[in-house]
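Page 42, continued from yesterday. The earlier attempt failed because a stray header line got pasted into the input along with the sequence. Redoing it now with the clean sequence only.
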Amino acid sequence: MCSIVRLFQFFIATIPLFGVYCYFLWLAATRPNIADPNNEHFYDSRIRLTDILYVYLTTWVLYAVLLIHMLWFVTKRRRLSKQYEKEGIVILGDVLYDDEKRHGICDWLANLLCRKKDYGYVVYDLERVANHPACDYKGILEGKIRKKVRIYYRYPREQVSILVIPMYPFSGQPKTDLEADWASFSETYLVSEGYNEAADSNRASIKKVMSRDRSFGIILVSLGWLAFLLGASIFVCLQINEITDVYQDESAYWAWTIFITVMAGVTPVVAVGGNLLRWKMYERWILKSGKKGRPDGSYGSPRRVLRFNHSESRETGLSQATTSEEEDGSYVQMT
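This time it went through. Structure tokens are written below.
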């Protein structure tokens, strides 16, 4: 029942756009009827059918990108997340999160565009990874690493379980936050009860990602849109055939050329290539990103220095972080 409701909600959200595109389809259907200099509406202002074709094909590419993302990217992301459960080793580390509430316009825009509140840092000792019996990494591991990660429990923590894939020592992720991620796309996985209670407090919150039911609904709606846009584009091309001799700014040859180019060339390159590039960026962020610590207790490049003061705060008793300049960027996760 839940999946039907979510599918219906997503479908409702696309109805206004669908209504506009149906109007374009009506214009294409009636255009041959007025393609006559003797018709009283022949000299009225009009929307070119070629422009309508451009709109249909652009939307086709966007929905193709979305469909490939849901079918391929999301599947690989979930498989990578579950790899931590199968192969991950557990070490202790800290989770740093800035839970101070800010109300400025810049902070509001940063959270809206980059989901800033969904990210924190893990800090753990690479030597602990190297000393774990299951670690088979061949390189030298020493010092601490600071890594930006997706956070579901929005509060700082000390000496908690960090899961690391042995072959990728920079891949540390908070175990409880990974469990929340697993629970978001599994019907059987349950998050620890203690952390559910913590999430109900003012210091923590979980922002659920899309479940499999909703993902399946988006796939169905995307398939429906693609079928509609394909049929509508072919219909517009056929209608341009009917009026190409009447209107000098309409060309059947050009319309079919654009249609074939988008279907056979642009769509595979943008939809497949774009998602492949995005996956490579995401995979590198998850498995290989991070800043190694310096002897002075700072992390990162000279232009981005993060220093941690491990003295206990009177209010929280947790490590505090201060930045000297802009933080390094994060990767917006889409499920």
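Notes: The first helix runs from residue 2 to 34.
Reminder to self: strip header lines before submitting.
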